[in-house]
Amino acid sequence: MIERLTFALLLYAAPWGVSAAPDTYRLDPVHTRVLFAVEHAGFSQALGTVSGSEGTLSFDPDDWNSAMLTVSVPLQRLDLGNDKWNRAALARNLLDAERHPEACFVSTRIEPIDATHARVIGELTLRGVSREVTLDVTLNAIKRHPMPPFRRTAGFSATATLSRSAFGVDAWPTMIGDQVQLRIEAEALRDRSAADPQDTPSVDEPGTPAPVDDSDTPSPSPARKRAP
Question: What digits encode the pLDDT tens for the residues 168-197?
Answer without folding.
Answer: 999 999 999 999 999 999 999 998 765 454
